[in-house]
Each structure stands twice: as C-alpha cells, then as structure tokens.
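Retro notes
What went well: the complex prediction finally ran end to end.
Inputs used:
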Amino acid sequence: MGQSMGSFGARNVDLYMNDNPTFDPQTGFSFERKPREMKAREEDLISARIPPQFRDYCAHYLLDYQVCRYKNMPMLYKCAHEKHDYLNCEHQDYVLRMKEFERERRLRLREQRIVGAA
Amino acid sequence: MQKFSICFISFFVLFSFSMINIFFFSYFVMNNLVYILEWELISFSSMSIVMSILLDWMSLLFMMFVSLISSVVIFYSKSYMSSELNLNRFIILVLLFVFSMILLIISPNIISILLGWDGLGLVSYCLVIYYQNIKSYNAGMLTALSNRVGDVFILMVISWMMNYGSWNYFFYLDFMVNDYMMMMISVMIIMAAMTKSAQIPFSSWLPAAMAAPTPVSALVHSSTLVTAGVYLLIRFNSLLIDMFFFKVLLLLSGLTMFMAGISANYEFDLKKIIALSTLSQLGLMMSILSMGFPDLAFFHLLTHAMFKALLFMCAGVIIHMMNDIQDIRFMGGISNFIPLTCLCLNVSNMALCGIPFLAGFYSKDLILEMVSMSNLNFFIFLLYYVSTGLTMFYSFRLTMYLMINDFNLLSVYNLYDEDYVMLKSMFTLMMMSVLSGSMLMWSIFSYPYMIYLPLNIKLMVIYVSILGAFLGYLMSNMNIYSMNKYLKSYNLSSFLCLMWFMPNLSTYGLNFYFLNYGQLMLKNIDMGWSEFYSGQGLVLILKNYTVFYSFFQMNNNFKIYLFSFVLWVCFLMMFMMIYLNSL
Amino acid sequence: MFYFMNSNKMFFIFILFFSTLISISSNSWLGCWIGLEINLLSFIPLISNSNNLLSSEASLKYFLTQSIASINFLFFILLKMIFMKNFEMNNFFSIMINSSLLMKMGSAPFHFWFPNIVEGLSWFNNFILMSWQKISPIILLSYYFNKNFLILIIMLNAIIGAIGGLNQTSLRKLMAFSSINNLSWMMSSIMISENLWIFYFLFYSMLISIMCFMFYMLNLFFINQLFFININYLIKLSLLINFLSLGGLPPFIGFFPKWIIINFFMNNNFYFITFILIMSSLILLFFYIRIIYSSFMFNYLKLKWIKIYFKNKMFILLNFISMVSILGMILSTFFFL
C-alpha cells in the first residue's frame, strides 16, 4: 500500500512509479550533477555470486557485509556494523529516488502551468 | 531395558540428527552450496530411474527444525502417553510421520514429494484416530479426505509434468515459466498446498483434527503437516510469481487468517483455540508467500513451529492436570500452582503475538513491515493488521482465562506439574523459541531487507496489539449474569463462531445433498417411470395383446377363416376391376 | 425315423421331393401350379392317420385350405397372363398371386390354419410341414413379388409370430408360431437375394430338425411335460442350448443367419423392418428362455424310477448336429483363416 499511496498525488500529471525521468538532469541545479557510479567492481560481484537484483549502487557495502559474515561465522551478530552501513546506504538510495520522483512531478506541474499560461 | 525405551532411543537419534544438521546448515548457507545426491536404481537403454536427494540450506534447516521438534515431542510423550498400553505403536507412527516429512523436505522431484505427501496424509490419519472413539473417527475421516484431495492434485501435476521429460522440477522451473502447461501445473500445485495447509475452502479439517493426542497435535498440526503445503509453494515459488492465481491465493489466505482469528475468539476448547491460532498463522505464511517473499514465509514457518509446539505441549500439561478437561471455562489461576508451565505458556503466547525480541517478533514484524512497503490493496492491508490485532485478542483472552481468572473446576484442589520429563522438553523449546528468532534472522538473510516507513504505520502494529489486548481483557470478563450479546445476534455469532460454516461444506454438503438427490432419482426414475416405459409396462402390454390375439386364434373357426379368404379375393377382384378400368 | 420303413410312406416322400423340384424348376407358371398340386396330393397321405381322430381332422383341414389356395393361384396366374403378358414385377396382380402363395405357406394374414394343423400332426410330419413345404411357395414368391405388399406381410408375420406364441402351452403350437416368425425372416431374405434365402433356410431347417427330433424321441407335446421329465443332465443341456440357438442367441449358430440378414438390410437401408424383426425375435426369445428357465433350472419332483435311455443310432446323428449348433459360430471362423 505504501508505494501506490506514494504515487497517488502524481496521477494528475500522469506520472507512475515505474516511469523514467524525462527532463534534463541539470535543469534547476546550480552545481554540476555527476551521474552515479558503481563502486563495486563487476568481477567482484560475479565471483561473489550476488543475485542480479542486488547489484545496485550500494553493492560495495553488501560485499563487505558478505565478507564479514563469512569471516565471523557462526557468531554473525558481530557483523551488525557492516549491516547497518549497508542498510543506511540503501536508505539513502531510496530517499534519493523519492526526491527524483518528486522533482519529476514538480517539473511536470511547472510544464503544465507554463503551457496553461501560454 | 527400562532406561532405553523406544522414546529415549528415538529422542536421542533425532536430537543428534538435528544437531548434525545445524553444522551442515551453517556450512551450506555460508558457501551457498546445493548438493544433489543421486542414486540410479535402474537404467535401461535410454530410460533411467534415479532417486535424488536435494540438500540445500533450506532443506537442511527445515530438517533440523523438524527433527528437533519431533525429538522433543517424543521425549514429552514418554510421560504424556505413559498410561498408554501400546506406546510402541504410537512412537512408531510418529517416527513414520517424521520420516515422511523428511522425505518431502529433501526431494527435488515431484514423485518423492508425492511419496512424502501421501505418507503424511496417511500417517496423520492413523494418528488422529488414535483414541478410537466416534469423534476421532469422524475427525480422522475429515482429515484424510481433505488431504486426499491435495493428493489428487499432485497426481495431476505429475501427469502434466511428463511433458517436460523429467520430474525433477528443481531444474527447469526457472526456464519454463511462461509455458501454458506450467500455468496448469502451478494452479494445481497451489490447490494442493491449499488443501494441505488448510486454507479457506479446505480449512475445516484442522480444528477437527484436534481429536488427536496432544503430542501428535504438537508435532503434526503445528509445525510439520500443515507447513508441508507452504514448503511446497516455497519450492515452486519461481514459477508462481506473476500468476493471477497467486493473487487469488493472497485473497484466500488473507481471509483464512482473518476468519481463524475471529473464530478463535468464540471458542472455549483449549486445543481448538490453539488450532485456530495455527490456522491464522498459516494464513499469514501463505499470504506473505503470495506477495512474493518466500524467504519471509520460510522464516515465519520455522519460528512459528517452535512456539506453537511449545504452546501445544503446555496445553497438554494443563489438560493432564485438569483431569482431561479441555474447556477453558473450568480453568483459571494456574499461574499460582504451576509457575514453570505458565512461564512456557507466557513465552509462547508472547512470541505468537510478536512481542519484541522473542522469536515471533523477528518474523512477524518483518512480514508486516514488508507488507506495508509493498504495493497492495487496502483490503489486504486491513486483513493483515486486523488479524494481527485478533491474534493479540485471542492470546490475551486465553491468558486471562487460564491464568488470571479464578479456578472453576473444584473447590479443594492442588495442581501439580513436577513431571520433569515434560518440563525438560518444554524448556528446550522455550530456549529455542526465545533464541531462534534472532539466530535465524542473522543466518538466513544474507541480503537484508531495507524498511522505510512513516511513523504511524510503523506503530500500527503496536496500536492493533494494544487494542487487541484490551478487547481480550474485556471479553474474558463475561459472567453468567451479564447480558450475553451472543444470543442477540445469533445468526452473526454462529456464522463467525463456526468457521463461516465451512465444516458444513466439507461434511454435510458433500454427503447429504448428493445422497438425497440420488434417492430422488432412484425412486422416481429407476423404480418409477422407466419401469413403466420399458420394464414392467411392456410385459403388461404384451400380455394383453396375447390374450386378445388368442381370442381369434383358438376358436377353431375354420369356416370363418375360409370365408374371410374368399372375401379377400372378392375384394381384390373388385380392386382389379377398378384398376383395369383406369387403364 | 422308422417312418421310412413303411414303403407307402417312402413312396409319398419321394413324390413330395420331386414335386417341389418340379415346381421350382419349371419354365412357366403352369408348371409351378402342377408342382404345387402334386405337393398337396402327396403330402396328404403322409399325414393322414386313420387311427387318430385329431390327425385325420388336421389332414382334412390341410387339404381344404391348400386346395383353395392352389385354385386361386391357378386363377390368378391365368388372369395375369391375359392382362399383363408376363411383364413388370411390382404391380397389382402380383398382390393376388402373392396372397395365394402366402396362404399356401401359412403366413399371416392367412395363417390361422397353421397352428391348428400343426397341433394335430406328429413331430416328423411337423418337421416336413415346417421346413420342406415352405420351399416351393417361397421360391415362387421370389419370382413375382410386390415389394410393398411383402414388406407389410413381413412385419405382420413377425408381430403375429411373436405375440401369438406368448400364450401357448403346447409345444407344437409354439413351434408353429416360431415357424411363422421365421417365415418373416425368410421372406425378408427373399427381398435381397435367393442365395441368402437358401442360407437362412438351411440353418433354420437344421435347427428345426434338432428340435423336432428331440421332442419326438422324448415324446413331448406340452410344456408341463418338460417339468417332470427325468432325463439326464446332458440331454437337458443339449435341448436347452438348441432352444436358445433357435431363438437367435449369439454364441450359438441360430444367431448367424439373422445376423447376416440384418447386415444386408442395413446395407440396403431397410431400417424399420429390421427394427420390427429384431423386436419380435426378442419376444420369441423371451418365451423360449421362460420355458428353459422354468424347466431346466429348477428342481421339480421327478419320477425317479422311470429313466429314459437312448440307444438308437439316430441319437448319435442328433448329437453331432447339435454340436454343430453349439460350436458352429466359433468353428466357422476357422474357415477364414
């Protein structure tokens, strides 16, 4: 319910959860935005056999977590710090995606106002 | 000889087996290993019959839990069933059950799943009818036949899977997802799991199967038999993810969860309350599975097994103590007399409700948070949270009835639970029920779930729990002289109490109406009109004709006969005249 | 069997055979009539027996009916020759000729003399009356029949044979009605081909011969005599099986000719007649089974000091023929290996 309630306010600009951003990434920002880069290497991910859905921009924390788990087996509670780091990174990623969504929505509203005024 | 009874031997074997499995499990889950051991039975020119065993971390973990619980239950039944003359028979049946379950867990192909599945159904029938009275027989029949429907579905799955050349579904499920036949197979697998795990159309057998002895309920109806369906769906999960029928399963299991929660509030039989609580948790497992989170379902399956078996064992102690009375209206105040059992009872109840940091918290809370994070309907959301509240409701009501209210059976009494065999087994499970949640959470989830929720949704669990507890307190204060609201809304009450009339559907609806219709057909058609039109009616007609005919034949009326021939000739002549005139 | 020991009878039997041959192999209708007359004249001495009142009355009745039929036959063929000069089959005159021939045979609707006369004759005479006397009228029928009339007669025969036979207790009358029913099958085979008729006739006369000779040897005339007769089990079994075979029950050979006729009828789309024939055959079979069931399955009070032994050579022949009746269908498949 959370996800669909989140996009509920964006229906009037025809924006849904799975859509890609349609505006230029640089508009409205005073500083220069760089594209995000993967900090984990491809061959590391492949050799650790991480499933495809987890190979996102936080994968380097995930790799550290897996290494820590393997080393501390069976006292896995000692890896709480690495798990916390990974979950924080995921949280930041989620918040970033929410902000991108909101930006898209506001830009479309602005578009509508501009078109409506013209 | 006395020391090494069959209980003790089997307890020892199963316990050591589960300890071995812990080590194997931890090794397998770290290295993400999957071993498949194959034994080739027969090999003809191009056909070979191979028996395979699948060992990956899921099956090892489940085997560990199953063997742990069953070892504890067998140890417990040494004292619980001590007055039983044929204890060997009982233990052997339980062992057969355990072996069938293990066979189901370790099989990567549908044929050995069928062997385990059928073994489970059959042995659970034998165990349910163990006390041989009429109620047990009826309950056993209901159990066995409901499970049999699931067997039929699996048999059909076997025949459909012959299209793929191999019955080892484990290898090709990921590849064949979009095939039409796979859709048929998945529908049937879902139906089979629904019968075994007692979801909505088939859920009448689980409360009825409480006619079994309590150790059997602890083993079978809390952790192993009813979770076999969930386990099967977890194995087939990669097939079922985007199907429409999976969403139907979500609805039905949500409704099961809700219905069982409501019905448990109307029940006064101790074991039936626990059975309905099991049914509610099964609905929770199935519904989270159908949302697309199989590992969460598996996690909840394991932790639920722990505390539910513990709860059944405590119930067994209480029943023994109350001289085999199962009605909670007779019980009360037992925390003053049997504090150790009450300790286990409390821990188990709190784990069921999801009190923080016990076993149930890790699984249940994570489930509810993932549910809130995902994309679903308001109705389903409501079902989840209201059912959580109802869980708290009936648990608290049970606590009130059992421990806080007054003892209602006798006026002079002394309650006694110093049976160290039963206490030791309960303590084992209590330790596990406290620790296993956290242990499993660290081991299983290599890739953690990130939860990000607004404050009120996060606290919604606490809101519904407090509300449920409050309602439980209020509900348990019913007295004989307070105005009983049940009778004012009799139809609604009986609908909610009797499990939405589903037992009627499974028993009465299948027997009485069909037989009645058959009798109608027999009387009216078979012995009625069809006799008139074909059997006896023809005999009557022929008899009349014969008698009529012999009136002409038998009179020796020779002269009339010859004269009539002459008349015929004259008639022909006349005709001939006409004919010739027309030429 | 000892019939032939009498030289008079032997003479008349000889002339009987020849008369039929004259009738069926003549070039003109007059020759047919001559054959029929000689047939009549030579049969009368065979059946008349001055010792028995019933028998002589039967022979008188036979003479009257058959002579009327012959005279009508002569008249109608002369009439036909005047008007039609031997052209076209399915016309009005054929009805007249057919009806006289039907009276000769004892087929419905001119059959009322037939059970009466059969009641009065001995079993051997019955056998000749039911099998041999039918040959020449049927062949003459096949030369000049009217299809529509014949279809009507077939159906009438079948129904009358079935319904009349239900209420009989005398074995001779029962055989008479069975003969009327089988006459309908024979006439229906005429409509297909004469070859088929010969086929049916051979089987039918074989079965009739077994039945008549068995009844002759056991000296049975009524059904209740079957109940307290003290014969041994094998003869009972053989009688039972031949009865069933006559009724047309499948593994026995009586089914075979009926099956072939149904087959040919189906090929030529005569569905309704087939239905009537089968249903009447069913009723007749019911009646046979009723007799068999009551007499051969139940244990009646038997006269135990009268035992019947068979020592004549006739019985060996009879057994051989009845073995053909039992096993014939199976054995005939060996012909096609």
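What we learned: Residues 2-117 of chain A form one domain.
What to try next: split runs per interface for comparison.
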